[in-house]
């Protein structure tokens, strides 16, 4: 008698409830995926067979490795000096600063970087770096663990990147006098 | 005493002018109290002095500054009896006159600042001045500078004189007016600009100078193009093109010359704004030295050399305090009492010397005295007593390290605090100032003979003449001021010894230094006939510098080097050449320094690294040097062959893949020559493949390494292995 319409209503109600629940789940899912993971922008480049990177904010320019004047009697890591935007900068061998690393081809690029103390210098590398990101949380965790100028961080697709901290690198580097004759 | 408001703008100008005149009067007074001047010279100084005082009186009166007119009048009165009997001025009179000048200047400045109304009545000061002056008859007969009672403030006055603003010479660009301005023109008619604005303007001028160099280079390129086309007969058929090309070349040259004139004018204008002669801070020091030595019962004379060198105003302001400290120290601690000096066989008057010299972008400031020198034992004890070092540490220090203790904060050899010293504040502040200016300070001293401080500071202003020379492939510059002359080597002028070669020059023998060897680019050898020799001087030392070629002189802006190479003693900076490349500029004091001192004991093994990669050369060099090798570099196969003709090597490390002549061709050339047939050669390559390895070893190489293996540290082991194998075969 009066029960049938109620059943229909109830059935409709269930369907509606399910529909709404599905919609809500979809929205929740969407919402979760919309929360962007905090990232650290880097300039990644090869050094031998390994991948290295510098924080993108420390990179000022990438130049071809030419017009570098050798500086006799300077420290082993010093390749020479060059002119960049009216300033005289040192060109340094990154492999030498890092204590000898792989060599896939002769460096052809100079990266002008902020040393972290307001001064600029140029580091050699084998190829023009590409901008990419690392999860910020991974970078911070790696930095907290390590004390040296290079920290190892995995990308989202599990590739190992050696991230250089310019401030730490130049704080410990012994670029200076080789010997006086 | 109120100044007529209409005249107030002129009073500021008058104060500046008065400062200049008073400085001249001060210098004359100091001259007059010295011994040994001829009567004619004395008379001239007295006449000049009288005129200057009269000028001060007249100028003050014309502006209604009666108090100043009265002071100048009293000073004239004090001078009058001495002018009548030309003689050395007695010290008490000099004291009075200097005191009067201080009084005059302080009141003139107060009037200029609009504080004239608040000045005390000058009557008391004038009365004191009159009372302090010896009676005319006494002044006229006082023998040889006998000491009289001096009012205490007459001696304490120098601090005011030294700290008073020092005027600049007249300069249309200058901020402050150098002379009274015409009526109706306010004193703020000029511009006030910040140091940053001027600095950025200087940078633009430097850029313009580089543009001019590039224009010159383009002009030369155009000439080369014309010559090339003419050589190939291509221009003969196109007269119109030829005319156009030569016309363009001429226009380019004219434009270059005009640009050059504009750059020079701009730079001169900027220099006039931003610099002033060093004498503006050195002259007032004469008075300070004089008054301080009087106060301490000593006698001292300050001689200044190079006061005409113009320097950045900001630099001068910072240096003034440092020089005051050094000279006060010299008078207080360095110079002995007159009787003690005479007992030691010295002149009773102590000699202080300030020498200023600019070479390129380096400024050398040398302050020396002929006093008792630094007592190292006393320094050790004082440093221990003040807790700067322990007794054990002090015992371990060498003489130079002990001397350096005088720059420590809190150091003083005085056990009591006096007006001049004992507070342990002084030379540490001097060193902080100098290091703050990116300079350095060094001290040398000989017991009983004196002490010398040398301040070396970078100066960053405008261009300076540089002589460009070449040693092997390295072009370098030398500040032209350090180059006395250039000549070509002749066997009859050279004295070749076992260890050194000397050049007979102007009746003297001077050491010959090979620039290439000094820079570690090649082994040292006596100069060949016809090789250019530059006579380089710095700090009183001279050497004959052997170079491979003299390229020519350039007017270049020398920039400071970055921190990574700043400490390399050989270089003072770098300048940009026409194509944007940098030219390193040598430090003349390093060139003339004793090269033997820094030489490591005889190096037995020598390696030649041949690679067209700058990085690879640097890396290989570092590894081999760490293994005790002396390493020379070549950027190509052709350069390597040249090096091998001039020098002998124990091993060659050569890149396989080089342009023009690759490693394999170089090995083939070496194996053809008798003297290099058995020379060990190791090939290195960025390509780590079996094919490359086989190819390299088949060419006659003694070893093969990939650059990855080199970078991993295997180079030295391979070199030693190959040398040992070659040795055993031989």
From TrEMBL, chain A:
<protein>
    <submittedName>
        <fullName>Chemotaxis protein CheW</fullName>
    </submittedName>
</protein>
<dbReference type="GO" id="GO:0007165">
    <property type="term" value="P:signal transduction"/>
</dbReference>
<feature type="domain" description="CheW-like">
    <location>
        <begin position="39"/>
        <end position="175"/>
    </location>
</feature>
<dbReference type="InterPro" id="IPR036061">
    <property type="entry name" value="CheW-like_dom_sf"/>
</dbReference>
<dbReference type="GO" id="GO:0006935">
    <property type="term" value="P:chemotaxis"/>
</dbReference>
<dbReference type="InterPro" id="IPR002545">
    <property type="entry name" value="CheW-lke_dom"/>
</dbReference>
<dbReference type="Pfam" id="PF01584">
    <property type="entry name" value="CheW"/>
</dbReference>
Automatic annotation (TrEMBL), chain B:
<dbReference type="GO" id="GO:0006935">
    <property type="term" value="P:chemotaxis"/>
</dbReference>
<dbReference type="InterPro" id="IPR036061">
    <property type="entry name" value="CheW-like_dom_sf"/>
</dbReference>
<keyword id="KW-0808">Transferase</keyword>
<dbReference type="GO" id="GO:0000155">
    <property type="term" value="F:phosphorelay sensor kinase activity"/>
</dbReference>
<dbReference type="Pfam" id="PF02518">
    <property type="entry name" value="HATPase_c"/>
</dbReference>
<feature type="domain" description="Histidine kinase">
    <location>
        <begin position="323"/>
        <end position="461"/>
    </location>
</feature>
<dbReference type="InterPro" id="IPR003594">
    <property type="entry name" value="HATPase_dom"/>
</dbReference>
<dbReference type="InterPro" id="IPR036641">
    <property type="entry name" value="HPT_dom_sf"/>
</dbReference>
<dbReference type="InterPro" id="IPR008207">
    <property type="entry name" value="Sig_transdc_His_kin_Hpt_dom"/>
</dbReference>
<dbReference type="InterPro" id="IPR011006">
    <property type="entry name" value="CheY-like_superfamily"/>
</dbReference>
<feature type="domain" description="Response regulatory">
    <location>
        <begin position="606"/>
        <end position="722"/>
    </location>
</feature>
<keyword id="KW-0418">Kinase</keyword>
<feature type="coiled-coil region">
    <location>
        <begin position="198"/>
        <end position="225"/>
    </location>
</feature>
<dbReference type="InterPro" id="IPR051315">
    <property type="entry name" value="Bact_Chemotaxis_CheA"/>
</dbReference>
<dbReference type="InterPro" id="IPR005467">
    <property type="entry name" value="His_kinase_dom"/>
</dbReference>
<dbReference type="InterPro" id="IPR002545">
    <property type="entry name" value="CheW-lke_dom"/>
</dbReference>
<protein>
    <recommendedName>
        <fullName>histidine kinase</fullName>
        <ecNumber>2.7.13.3</ecNumber>
    </recommendedName>
</protein>
<keyword id="KW-0597">Phosphoprotein</keyword>
<feature type="domain" description="CheW-like">
    <location>
        <begin position="463"/>
        <end position="597"/>
    </location>
</feature>
<dbReference type="InterPro" id="IPR036890">
    <property type="entry name" value="HATPase_C_sf"/>
</dbReference>
<dbReference type="InterPro" id="IPR004358">
    <property type="entry name" value="Sig_transdc_His_kin-like_C"/>
</dbReference>
<feature type="modified residue" description="4-aspartylphosphate">
    <location>
        <position position="655"/>
    </location>
</feature>
């Amino acid at each position: 008698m009066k029960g049938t319409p109620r059943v229909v209503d109830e059935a409709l109600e269930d369907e509606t409830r399910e529909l709404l629940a599905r919609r809500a789940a979809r929205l929740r899912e969407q919402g979760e995926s919309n929360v962007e993971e905090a990232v650290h922008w880097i300039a990644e480049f090869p050094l031998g067979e390994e991948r290295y990177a510098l924080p993108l904010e420390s990179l000022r320019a990438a130049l071809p490795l030419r017009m570098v004047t050798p500086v006799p009697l300077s420290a082993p890591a010093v390749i020479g000096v060059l002119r960049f935007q009216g300033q005289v900068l040192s060109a340094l061998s990154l492999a030498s600063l890092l204590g000898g690393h792989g060599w896939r081809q002769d460096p052809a690029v100079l990266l002008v970087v902020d040393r972290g103390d307001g001064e600029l210098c140029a580091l050699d590398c084998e190829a023009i770096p590409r901008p990419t990101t690392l999860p910020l949380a991974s970078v911070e965790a790696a930095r907290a663990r390590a004390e040296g100028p290079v920290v190892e961080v995995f990308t989202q697709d599990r590739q190992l990147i050696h991230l250089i901290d310019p401030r730490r690198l130049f704080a410990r580097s012994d670029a200076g006098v080789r010997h006086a004759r | 005493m109120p100044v007529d408001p209409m005249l107030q703008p002129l009073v500021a100008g008058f104060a500046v002018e008065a400062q200049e005149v008073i400085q001249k009067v001060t210098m004359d007074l100091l001259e007059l109290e010295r011994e040994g001047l001829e009567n004619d010279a004395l008379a001239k100084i007295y006449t000049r002095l009288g005129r200057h005082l009269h000028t001060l009186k007249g100028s003050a009166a014309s502006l209604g500054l009666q108090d100043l007119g009265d002071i100048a009048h009293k000073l004239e009165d004090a001078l009058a009896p001495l002018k009548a009997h030309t003689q050395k001025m007695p010290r008490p009179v000099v004291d009075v006159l200097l005191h009067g000048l201080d009084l005059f200047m302080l009141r003139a400045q107060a009037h200029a600042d609009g504080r004239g109304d608040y000045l005390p009545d000058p009557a008391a000061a004038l009365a004191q001045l009159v009372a302090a002056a010896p009676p005319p008859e006494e002044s006229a007969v006082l023998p040889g500078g006998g000491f009289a009672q001096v009012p205490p403030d007459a001696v304490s006055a120098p601090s005011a004189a030294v700290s008073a603003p020092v005027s600049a010479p007249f300069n249309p660009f200058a901020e402050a007016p150098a002379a009274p301005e015409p009526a109706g023109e306010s004193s703020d008619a000029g511009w006030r600009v910040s140091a940053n604005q001027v600095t950025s303007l200087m940078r633009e001028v430097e850029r313009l100078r580089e543009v001019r160099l590039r224009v010159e280079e383009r002009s030369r390129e155009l000439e080369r193009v014309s010559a090339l086309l003419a050589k190939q007969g291509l221009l003969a058929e196109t007269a119109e093109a030829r005319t156009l090309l030569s016309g363009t070349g001429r226009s380019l040259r004219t434009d270059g010359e005009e640009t050059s004139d504009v750059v020079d004018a701009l730079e001169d204008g900027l220099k006039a704004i931003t610099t002033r002669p060093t004498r503006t801070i050195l002259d007032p020091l004469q008075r300070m030295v004089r008054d301080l030595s009087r106060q301490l019962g000593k006698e001292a004379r300050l001689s200044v050399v190079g006061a005409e060198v113009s320097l950045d105003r900001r630099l001068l302001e910072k240096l003034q305090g440092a020089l005051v400290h050094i000279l006060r120290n010299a008078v207080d601690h360095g110079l002995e009492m007159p009787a003690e000096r005479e007992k030691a066989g010295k002149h009773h008057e102590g000699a202080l010397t300030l020498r200023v010299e600019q070479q390129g972008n380096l400024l050398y400031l040398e302050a020396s005295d002929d006093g008792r020198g630094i007592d190292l034992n006393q320094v050790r004890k004082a440093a221990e007593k003040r807790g700067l070092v322990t007794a054990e540490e002090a015992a371990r220090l060498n003489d130079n390290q002990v001397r350096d203790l005088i720059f420590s904060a809190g150091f003083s050899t005085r056990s009591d605090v006096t007006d001049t010293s004992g507070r342990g504040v002084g030379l540490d502040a001097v060193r902080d100032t100098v290091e703050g200016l990116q300079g350095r300070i060094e001290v040398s001293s000989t017991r009983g003979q004196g002490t010398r401080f040398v301040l070396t500071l970078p100066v960053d202003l405008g261009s300076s003449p540089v002589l460009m020379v070449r040693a092997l492939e390295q072009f370098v510059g030398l500040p032209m001021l350090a180059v006395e002359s250039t000549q070509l080597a002749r066997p009859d002028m050279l004295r070749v010894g076992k260890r050194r070669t000397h050049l007979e020059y102007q009746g003297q023998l001077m050491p010959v230094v090979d620039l290439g060897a000094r820079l570690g680019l090649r082994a040292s050898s006596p100069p060949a006939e016809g090789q250019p020799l530059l006579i380089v001087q710095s700090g009183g030392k001279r050497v004959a510098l052997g170079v491979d070629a003299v390229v020519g002189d350039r007017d270049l802006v020398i920039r400071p080097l970055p921190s990574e190479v700043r400490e390399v003693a050989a270089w003072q900076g770098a300048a940009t050449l026409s194509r944007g490349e940098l030219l390193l500029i040598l430090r003349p004091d390093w060139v003339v320094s004793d090269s033997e001192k820094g030489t490591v004991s005889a190096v037995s093994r020598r390696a030649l690294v041949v690679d067209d990669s700058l990085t690879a050369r640097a890396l290989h060099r570092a590894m081999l040097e760490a293994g005790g090798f002396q390493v020379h570099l070549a950027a190509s196969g052709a350069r390597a062959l040249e090096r091998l003709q001039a020098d002998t090597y124990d091993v060659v490390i050569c890149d396989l893949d080089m342009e023009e002549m690759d490693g394999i061709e170089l090995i083939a050339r070496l194996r053809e020559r008798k003297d290099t047939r058995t020379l060990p050669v190791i090939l290195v390559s960025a390509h780590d493949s079996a094919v490359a390895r086989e190819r390299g070893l088949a060419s006659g190489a003694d070893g093969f390494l990939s650059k990855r293996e080199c970078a991993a540290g295997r180079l030295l082991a391979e070199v030693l292995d190959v040398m040992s194998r070659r040795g055993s075969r031989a």
